[in-house]
Amino acid sequence: MAGQQFQYDDNGNTFFYFLTSFVGLIVIPATYYLWPRDQNAEQLRLKSLRRVHGRCLWYRLRLMKSQQSIVPTLKKAVLLFGWAVFLLLAYKVSKLDREYQEYNPYEVLNLDPGASSSEIKKQYRVLSLKHHPDKGGDEATFMRIAKAYAALTNEESRKNWEMFGNPDGPGATSFGIALPAWIVDQKNSMLVLLVYGLAFMVILPVVVGTWWYRSIRYSGDQILINTTQLFMHFMYKTPNMNMKRLAMVLTAAFEFDPRSNKEATIRPTDNIEVPQLIRELGNINVKKKEPPFCYPYSLKARVLVLAHLARMDISEELEEDQRFVVRKSPSLLQEMINVGCQLTMMANSRGGFHAPRLVTIENCMKLTQMIVQGLQESKSPLLQLPHFEEDHLRYCISKKYKVRSLQDLVSLKDSDRRSMLRFLGEEKYDEVMAVLGSFPHITMDTKLQVLDDEDSNNITAGSIVTVTVTLNRKRMADMFEKEQESTPCPGEEAANTEEAQADANKAKTKVWQNKSKGAKKTAKSKKKKLTKKKAAPPPAKVKQANGNVAGNEVAAAAAAAAAVTAAKEDEDEASDKGSESDEGEANKDSPSERDEDSDKQSDTEADEMGGDDEEEWEALQQSIQRRERALLETKSKVTHPVYSLYFPEEKQEWWWLYIADRRDQTLVSMPYHVCTLKDTEEVELKFPAPSKTGNYQYSVILRSDSYMGLDLIKPLKLEVHEAKAMLDNHPQWDIPDTEEEDEEQEDSDGIEESEDDDEDND
């Protein structure tokens, strides 16, 4: 009876198959993910950024790191060694002989297939005499010969061979284990058990436990949970937080504590250098005994951040620690913004405590800009540019130029700009213009809607308002020529103002005309007659004949008289037209004409309503498709490198977009972190409309997380109407009583008719 048989690989051949597969599963993915990227491409990218970002700290550090690092070489060496082992094992496997061969008795007897029985018997005698054990032959060979002879001569053996491939019938199924036999040898049992215990009872639990312990200490944004709780405590305690207090809370993060983060360090020289920096900085609340602000790690981090904002020179050891603190600060400030938003939502939903003020959240955003640019809040945004010093600002803010922002510098004419920046040489001036040209110039368009509603433009109390904000990003360099082209001459300005006034008057008349849709024809006819009558020649002749002051007075009097007569004629015409219209209505053939006119009007109104519904439906479908695309596609967060002279890491250009009530100092919509704005980006901000009707004034605010002085604020007017009353019974479900009675009568009549038919049949 067939069975199963398990056996270990004595020769180790099967084990090579397993080993080859295992090494291949490691080497192939590791090569894809860990092989160093093309260093030439990175060098070319850095070379293209040299003209603009050559003076940035992160750029110089990146060049030094790429020249000194040997990590890519080590990675290549390890991966090449793995591939060598894999190819060697594959070659070894290809040279292994296959153990399984199909049983063929003709080959055992050295006969051709289809030999006759006499030939089989004759060959068997010859081989048995040669290999019989009594004649000095091999017993195993003789047994194979006897088995082959029986398979060809015995009917039962031949049938088993033809059916199962074996003269003895179905044999046991053999399973080979891809491990060498010495593993289960009794001599090696203790060693194998020790290895298994060490691997699965010591190494694996330690690795998993270490990973789990580290992962539960961090949030999804790789911020320590203790730091998030610290931020929540102080933002709840101090809803209105100024910049000095905010810097203290930021530097109290546990990321800067060596007990919580191994990257943070406390050096013996800090006891000498940190107090010296404190004396140079001045008042930084050193004597404050509130924990954790009084801890050494918090005090050191605060001093390093303030020294970075003041652009002070420090020692090399402290500079390394300062880079670590500055590098961590933007992500920590983003976590503070998230915590502030969470507390705001909790206050709006539950109540019972004060949410963080808008000033606190905006100060977090401003502090991020300051840290990235290494500037204090009171400093000019022009100091973000290279070669600009405090002494040079007096040339910019003079009465002649009055340049206080980057936009003012862009709007200047090239000649004025060159004369103002004459303290720079030609080479430095070109570098400043290249850097300024790389700065972003954002335009923002807003659209207010109430989606999933019949009237999307009508905002009712308590409805969910959707503000679709379209952001277009261009470079400042694109604005240079436009600003120059858009500055007209004085004569052109006067002409443009006259044209603008004429266009405004035309627009006003068009709006006035559109108000009375029913009286379009009468208005047109009146206008034609008025133009004919007003174009009277006598006043014009008087004006032409008398060009002096007296002539002007005469012309004015004549024009007034003509206006009076024209007004009287208009009244007469209006009365005549009124009588004609009355007669026309009275002389209509029948009431059916009136019905036809009303039907036509209702049809036109229905067509207009249908067109509006189709437009709203298309807009709704487009918004749904945009949401689906936004959910499915994953955009890269690599936008544009930020120009920052003192930030130690390459920073991408990101933005915050939100709606705020600046009068009440509250957030209306939560800040949306725009991380994918390369050229154009569309963002939907949602918020509930106020519960009371009236007019509200909000602001759509776009803030950069990298640049100072490039924020945008756009007003948003909100007119809230009263919500429609909910219908208890919708008209489409109301069935008139008369219809129900008619149906009951029909049913009863049908029953009576059927009874009468039955009686007739009887």
Automatic annotation (TrEMBL):
Residues 575-603 have a biased composition (Basic and acidic residues). It is found in: Endoplasmic reticulum membrane. Residues 517-535 have a biased composition (Basic residues). Residues 604-618, 736-762 have a biased composition (Acidic residues). GO terms for cellular component: Sec62/Sec63 complex. Its main location: endoplasmic reticulum. The chain crosses the membrane at residues 15-35, 70-91, 190-213. One of its GO terms (biological process) is SRP-dependent cotranslational protein targeting to membrane. One of its GO terms (molecular function) is RNA binding. Residues 104-165 form the J domain. SUPFAM superfamilies: Chaperone J-domain, E set domains, Sec63 N-terminal domain-like. Keywords: Chaperone, Coiled coil, Endoplasmic reticulum, Membrane, Phosphoprotein, Protein transport, Repeat, Transmembrane, Transmembrane helix, Transport. Residues 480-547, 565-621, 729-762 are annotated as: Disordered. The ER translocon complex consists of channel-forming core components SEC61A1, SEC61B and SEC61G and different auxiliary components such as SEC62 and SEC63. Mediates cotranslational and post-translational transport of certain precursor polypeptides across endoplasmic reticulum (ER). Proposed to play an auxiliary role in recognition of precursors with short and apolar signal peptides. May cooperate with SEC62 and HSPA5/BiP to facilitate targeting of small presecretory proteins into the SEC61 channel-forming translocon complex, triggering channel opening for polypeptide translocation to the ER lumen. Required for efficient PKD1/Polycystin-1 biogenesis and trafficking to the plasma membrane of the primary cilia. This is Translocation protein SEC63 homolog. It comes from Betta splendens (Siamese fighting fish). The lineage of its organism: Eukaryota, Metazoa, Chordata, Craniata, Vertebrata. The gene is sec63.
